[in-house]
Amino acid sequence: MIPAIDFSAPSRFASLPPRSSERFARPRVAPSPHGEQVRTEDGRELVLRPIEAGDVAAMQRCFTRLSPEDIRRRFLHAMSELPAPMAQRLCRIDPALETAYVLMDESVQPAEMRGVGRIYVDEAIDSAEFSVLVEQDWSRLGLGALLMQRLVDDSRRRGLGELWGYVLLENRPMLQLCRELGFVQRMMPDEPGTALITLKL
């Protein structure tokens, strides 16, 4: 079970749950009128908030900064661009069946999207599929874990029984993160090189 962040702690910034790997630092989080202020150990700040319909351009700009490897790990196949209709669909979610959080860098104008995490609910099987992406220059700072924790919390709030996702075996940082957060990994015989990651809620 992943403990919730305790905003009653004396420190202005609360910490993520401890992890076994020292590769992941712990971003500090504090409430904000526009979301949650996140500060990484190297001093950079982001705003964690729900995705908005107006985030389309920021999402497309974020896509242009991804490496081909990042794109394949997130979308499980190669893509040269993020078409506007797809970006619009990703930003205009159905809150009854989807949750999406973004990490926005407001130190630049226009604000840039540095990470995104989302779930798609399948009511028929009482579960949700997750996906998480953090821009390479902001990776290994605990931001992926922060997004995953919010998705787990939201899935539990919805009363779902399981959270799951497909992860390429070469995506070792994500597999390690999921293990640290309590997910179980199973191989996919029909999909070589891909693992099914599940967390019972």
UniProtKB/TrEMBL annotation:
SUPFAM superfamilies: Acyl-CoA N-acyltransferases (Nat). PROSITE patterns: GNAT. One of its GO terms (molecular function) is acyltransferase activity, transferring groups other than amino-acyl groups. Keywords: Transferase. InterPro entries: Acyl_CoA_acyltransferase, GNAT_dom. The keyword Transferase applies. It comes from the Bacteria. Coiled coil: none annotated. Residues 46-201 form the N-acetyltransferase domain. It holds the Pfam family Acetyltransf_1. Residues 16-42 are annotated as: Disordered. This is GNAT family N-acetyltransferase. It comes from Rhodanobacter glycinis.
